[in-house]
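User: For a reading group we're discussing how well predicted structures match intuition. Take MFS transporter. Before you show the prediction, I'll give you the sequence so everyone sees exactly what went in.
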Amino acid sequence: MTAFLVLLLAYTISQFDRGFLAMVAPDLGPDLGLAASDLALLSAGWFLAFAIGQVPTGLLLDRVGPRRTVAGFLVLAALGAGLLGLAQGFAEAAAAMALIGLGCAPALMGGLYLFGRSYPPERFAMLSSVMIGLGTSGDLLGSTPLALASHAFGWRTILVGLALVTLAAAGLVLWLIEDPPRLSDPSKGPTKTSIWRGFAEVARMRALWPVFPVVFVSYAVVIATRSLWVGSYLGAVHGLDPLQRGNGTLAMSAAMAAGAIGYGPLERLVRDPKRTALAGCLVTGLALSVLGLFGGSSTALAVVLLALTGAAGLSYGILMAHARRFFPAHLLGRGVAFMNIVFMGGAAAVQGLSAAFVLGTGGLAPDAVYGRLFLAYGLALLAATAVYAFAPRKPAFERPNAVDPGGMEPGPTPPPPACAPAAPGRGARA
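Assistant: Thanks. Here is the predicted 3D structure of MFS transporter, as structure tokens, for the group to look at:
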């Protein structure tokens, strides 16, 4: 339980970091002389740095474990928060946001790695969903509470406080987390597998190819809506004041937390992460499409559709649980990190494209701009979900006499046990 709570704190900070810009943007933007497109690029830079950070994260988790990996990166996030609090223009703010994104890279991966090493695969979906759902409280803190705090203390003070809290979390990780036993690569030894070879092995798993498009799009469209556009959409299209925008954002964030937690029991009931994620992505794509077509007509309808998007949209943990089935134990760290590269690379790409889209529709009314944006999000997710429908449910060795759809080659040979039963200790319990 101690390890779970400490890693949950790190992930909660990461969640806050990826969403706070939407709430402080009305003050930060004018103070630094930034336009809406500049703010979109700042957010995209966070996700791009986060995605790039998955490369060293995957290697370090496999080689040194989550304790030093998570703590070291959190120090970088704290430094970035402090620098953002001192920023005077776009260049400084962009560098600070990138440093925060890089520092948050292993916040969730450390927990997922520990779950994968210490628990049987069938518990992975439940544990990761609970972690993601509770960690989404960072989004809750980044909505109405952040709007009130920013108004009372100013966004620069908030960033300095964030830096101090992040440093404290790094200290707790070093103090209270214990790494699981080292696990050697059975074919190449524990220290000889190059970083790129491990990631290449994951990329070559053909069974995962139909999964990659929905991983790239599903999280991206939800987090772009939550972290970048929800506040400006509710203000520009529906005329809500800052507190009302915060409340609308809070509704979406609360739904995201509840939905992420709910995915765990739902997957246990369905007993199939693929079908669970498939249904969630379908609902999310339809909700975004309806928001794009009809959300401008009613504030209540828009908030309900945003909440539905949040509730169904955090299929991240279940998609990760589906992919985790295909990773051998010696590639677990790089496997989950590779999937996170796709998740966060998609988020960076979608937010960058969103900025270009908004710039390219400057002559349209706000309801038309956001309507087209959300409709594009919904249609992209529905297309990716259609591809995902052809993904195999499990590796070939778990499907007696089965052949992968579409002529895909069999999955990897059965992985060895992730580790021996965990000995009692702080790091063995979640």
